[in-house]
Specification:
Helix content is about 80%, strand content about 0%. It contains 9 helices and no strands. This is DUF4239 domain-containing protein. Keywords: Membrane, Transmembrane, Transmembrane helix.
Length: about 250
């Protein structure tokens, strides 16, 4: 089980477009090769064509639904993470402007240090499934610095800090790759191979063609769902995770 868990974790850490497409296309090609080999070596025999065809159709529908689920699930996770990064960047920008007016050398430098560590250290570390304690320390220093700030600071700073803590906590949870994605891709590969193997056990080539058509239907459903998400995505189809709003703090420092 550890081997499968490591494999699932590795798949989950791959980019959605690269890792998922590689697994689906690779499993489909392997299933196609297995179909041809088993068809020519095993040959037709007395089998229940109707029952096997029914199983094949059910497996094809499961395969299609699983593919769409995995794609939408991954896209939603990406969307949530990008939204949280955007919210954190806006809150951090407001705190940075307040710090520049109050204490440019102290508070502002603390905010800039945290923003730099998020961009350079924490975001890459979370993409690898690891937490960055140094960035957490910089965030704690930021909170302590604002707590010790002079009373002339903006009255809404406390509320902004509370929202920043909440958004950051959610971002850390969303930022770590979900192993469920890896297990789902393994299930997709297994369903693909199983569907094609069932087709190879049927008399005649008709159900093999049905299996290939079922695979094409699944890939078409993926394409439609992907394009629908892409067109409605607020970042013009860019699905990568980049802390651009937090980088703005460094440009204005």
């Amino acid at each position: 089980m550890d081997i499968f868990a490591d494999l699932a974790r590795w798949i989950a850490e791959q980019p959605l477009s690269a890792g998922g497409t590689w697994v689906v296309v690779g499993s489909a090609l392997c299933g196609l090769v297995g179909t041809m080999i088993s068809t020519f070596l095993i040959g037709p025999d007395e089998r229940d064509t109707t029952l096997t065809g029914l199983k094949l159709e059910v497996l094809g529908q499961i395969f299609s639904g699983l593919l769409v689920f995995v794609l939408v699930h991954g896209a939603i996770l990406q969307y949530d993470l990008r939204t949280l990064l955007d919210q954190e960047g806006r809150l951090l920008t407001g705190l940075h402007l307040t710090a520049l007016r109050t204490d440019p050398d102290g508070l502002a430098a603390t905010v800039e240090r945290y923003a730099r560590m998020v961009v350079e250290r924490e975001t890459p570390a979370l993409a690898r499934g690891k937490a960055d304690l140094a960035t957490q320390g910089a965030f704690d220093d930021l909170l302590l610095a604002f707590a010790a700030a002079p009373p002339t600071i903006s009255p809404g700073t406390g509320q902004s800090l509370g929202e920043l803590v909440e958004v950051r906590s959610k971002r850390l949870v969303r930022g770590i790759p979900d192993p469920l994605m890896g297990y789902a891709w393994l299930g997709v590969a297994f369903a693909t191979v199983t569907t094609i193997v069932f087709a190879s056990l049927v008399i005649g080539p008709s159900l093999i063609v049905q299996a290939l058509l079922s695979t094409m239907m699944s890939l078409s459903a993926i394409t439609i769902a992907y394009l629908a998400i892409l067109m409605n995505h607020p970042w013009s189809g860019e699905m990568g995770i980049f802390p651009r709003t937090i980088e703005d703090v460094l440009r204005w420092g």
